[in-house]
C-alpha cells in the first residue's frame, strides 16, 4: 500500500509540474517572440544578458503587464510598451486559461531571462547561478512585492556572424 501511495504521489507531482511547465512555455513564446534582438546584439560575439521578466496576472486571470527588471539594457526596456499589443490573442487566451487552471491570480510570475551568444569561446560564458546585482530584483526602483511565483529560466542563444 505504501508503494502504491508513493507511486501515485510521484505521478501527481509529475502532472503538476507538467501543468506549470506548460504555462512557462506559453509565457516564453509570448515574451521571446514579441521583440526582435537589435542588430548590435546579434553581431556581438560575446553577448550575455540576464534579467527578470515580470508577468502580472489580474484577479480575472488575464495578463495586465509584462515588465523587465531594472538591470535590463535600454533596448529591452524600450520594448516594454510594445509587448502587450504585439502579443497574439491566442497566446493571451492560452496563458489566461492556464493561469485559471492553476489558480494564479492577483499575482506576478517571475521568469529569469537569459540571452547569450553561442559561439566559441563565449558559449562557455553562459550564466551559472552567479549572484546578481540588486537591480536584478528591482522594477522601476521598487523591490518585489505581493504574490510571486518563480518560473524556470527562459531565453535564447544566437550565433553571431563570423567576419
Global shape: globular
Low-confidence blocks of residues: 1-19
Number of strands: 7
The span between the termini is 65 Å
The helix fraction, in percent, is 25-40%
Kindly report the average pLDDT value.
76
The class by helix and strand makeup works out as: alpha/beta
Number of domains: 1
Described by strand count, sense and barrel closure, the largest sheet is: 5 strands, mixed
Q: Which strand-content bin applies to the residues? A: 15-25%
State the order of secondary-structure elements, H for helix, E for strand.
Answer: HHEEHHHEEEEE
C-alpha Rg (nearest Å) = 18 Å
Q: Count of DSSP helices?
A: 5
Summarize this entry quickly:
This protein is α/β, with parallel strands linked by helices. It has one domain. It has helices at residues 2-32, 39-42, 74-77, 80-86, 89-101, and strands at residues 48-57, 63-68, 107-117, 138-139, 142-143, 148-150, 154-158.
Task: Describe the fold and architecture.
- The structure is a single chain.
- With 163 residues, this protein is an alpha/beta fold.
- 36% of the residues lie in helices and 24% in strands.
- Strands 1, 2, 3, 6 and 7 form a 5-stranded mixed sheet that branches.
- Strand 1 (48-57) and strand 2 (63-68) form a beta hairpin.
- Helix 1 runs antiparallel to helix 5 (89-101).
- 17% of the residues are buried.
